[in-house]
């Protein structure tokens, strides 16, 4: 039993709006009529409702030809909720619902006990019992919509037609109304046809969809079928919005070419914000930017720089402020692979969540630096503090260079060296780790690597050390340059050659590769100090003196 | 609570109307004691036998006319306001009174032939001319109602017809001698006093017929409160309902105009008052309440018009006394709830 349309044509005397319509709305099902504005949804519904004559074809309701029914018979079989705004004046909600008995009452319109029972049932069915005694004029739009629906139910119809019932409602009322219609369809075995603009909601709750496409062709089927067939997209996609099949919603279509990868639970939400601010969510591979959700915020990475931001608002303004990046974010998988290969060069490096502080935070921490120097000195068994300092620094620089150059050679990428974690083992050897694979890539990584290695690691490292131990700056830069040379022997690359030509490194070594500064190992008590020596008079600083 | 209130209002209106009727019969240029008035009404001999004549030939027809006219105008006004969903609609919105006016002015100022003959017929001629004029407009409106899609169009046409008729009346008046023009103007001010017992029979019959048809319109008018589209989907034959409503309203308005002249104000105000009193727009109670309230109001106006200095025109009383009352009621209600769309 159902509403059946065969070759139906609707429209006006001078203009056929829709023709050749074939469709069925089954009892017990919620059927949603969808279509772009102006395609003829309302005309179709008005024709079904008997408010305008059909231009051809047949409409059968439970086997009866609708066109052949009298006004009253029709009203007993189907009820309609229209978009017309209703202000009937001084009427209680119950009186208004009582008007729904119109096709069942005699010429006086008096309600019998039976009629009153049905009115009560209808009010209860739409959960409006608390509104029954109230004046219709005082009801909110949502409440009035409920009461009008109850009035339709009081007609005891087999078919309920609703024309955009949610047009005036706020979001919660829309959801509530949709839920109500679903319930009524299944519990009262009604055929319900609803036209709506609430596309996303409709697609989620409809048992069946009548989709009028832009050419006025009616497609019918379960919403999922129409979505899979691409009909939803074909009908509703615009330059700005497109239907996302998996999400079942419409998403902003991004015209932006720059991509951003979002990692973490908030990904979907952030991607929406990014789309709005001119980014395209990255489908995979390298991306122009990357956002990683952390325990207390978001790590935003773009153009070789990392920003640690507390909330979405900050992320949005960050995303808006970015210019087109030169350096891009490498595919995390590529980074992982490159690091795995590169770890062959540096056994003291791991990827994974290992305990430890970030290396950056060590440089500025005098106690940590002093502790590292002390333990290195103990391991070496030297009393000269500068020897220990130099050794620790040389080892650290060598690890950094080997990681950086190793991944450049194996994957043309630089891992997130600014996120390296530092740990000092019991044997005073330094262990570095990266919590998760991530890194940068660009056709030419020289500038990025120069900045990261020299400006963000070697220089603060040098300054941090010299704040604790009076050691020659030239020696430390010499160490750094020598460590780069060592790494280059294992991982030869043009990039390394360009780096070593950087003045601060180039000046620290003589052409034959010997450190220019501070002949710490050749100095005798009487030979004085070299020009670079930070010491003032006292030539030897013992471990004992410095820690005292 | 609401049911009790409605019963109370209807009861009070019934009693009020009965009282007002008695008072209207008591008051007049000849002083008749209340007790004797009641005696006459009950068919007993009063102290002065002349009083029987006064009451039976003058006062009863006058009071009866007032009650009938008030009831008719109230009901017709209510029907029009609901049908057109317009709080300013009244029984004469469709030009029925304009048609009657034109008929009467043709009779009174006519320069010969058929109309002159009618004028010679005196009062009967005036009633007949008003009835013919109203009937012509009524027929036109009913024919149009079958064709015109929305009632608003009908309303606009009615206003246009009214304006055209008023222009023709003005034209006729400029051509006629001042004495006859004066007669027409006093007809236009309305009166319950002109009717004879014979008139009353005809007037009563037509009004009763109109009210009976109006009773049939209560259920359709309720459906129409939700607008024509909703009414149609609830099984109402809107075209038939429209014609039934227009037929009864025009019949009532036409009859009143024919016998009492175009009595303004009652038709527009009484429905609002009744709606306020009852607190509902449900025509099944509103219609009888409007009927009673209309009769009551018209009787009070008839009483008020009997001043020591002479009889005032009814339109003066209805508008002067009634307008402030309605304004107060409406302001207290803060809206014209009940008919506005």
TrEMBL record, chain A:
Location(s) in or outside the cell: Cell membrane
Pfam family, one: FhuF_C
Region forming the signal peptide: none
Organism: Lentzea albidocapillata subsp. violacea
GO terms of molecular function: 2 iron, 2 sulfur cluster binding; ATP binding; ATP hydrolysis activity
Highest taxon above the source species: Bacteria
A biological process from GO: iron ion transport
Keywords: ATP-binding, Cell membrane, Ion transport, Iron, Iron transport, Membrane, Nucleotide-binding, Transport
Protein name: Iron complex transport system ATP-binding protein
SUPFAM superfamilies (alphabetical): P-loop containing nucleoside triphosphate hydrolases
Gene Ontology cellular component list: plasma membrane
Taxonomic lineage of the native organism: Bacteria, Bacillati, Actinomycetota, Actinomycetes, Pseudonocardiales
Principal subcellular localization: membrane
Its membrane topology: Peripheral membrane protein
Keyword Acyltransferase assigned: no
InterPro entries: AAA+_ATPase (IPR003593), ABC_transporter-like_ATP-bd (IPR003439), FhuF_C (IPR024726), P-loop_NTPase (IPR027417), Siderophore_ABC-ATPase (IPR051535)
CDD domains: ABC_Iron-Siderophores_B12_Hemin
Domain ABC transporter as annotated: residue spans: 3-239
From TrEMBL, chain B:
Gene Ontology molecular-function annotations: transmembrane transporter activity
Membrane topology, from the record: Multi-pass membrane protein
GO annotation terms (biological process): siderophore-iron import into cell
Keywords of the record: Cell membrane, Membrane, Transmembrane, Transmembrane helix, Transport
Compartments where located: Cell membrane
Pfam families: FecCD
Entry GO CC: plasma membrane
TM annotation in the entry: 7-32, 92-114, 126-148, 154-176, 197-218, 243-273, 285-305, 311-331
Gene3D superfamilies (UniProt xref): ABC transporter involved in vitamin B12 uptake, BtuC
Similarity annotation: Belongs to the binding-protein-dependent transport system permease family. FecCD subfamily.
Protein name: Iron complex transport system permease protein
The species this protein was found in: Lentzea albidocapillata subsp. violacea
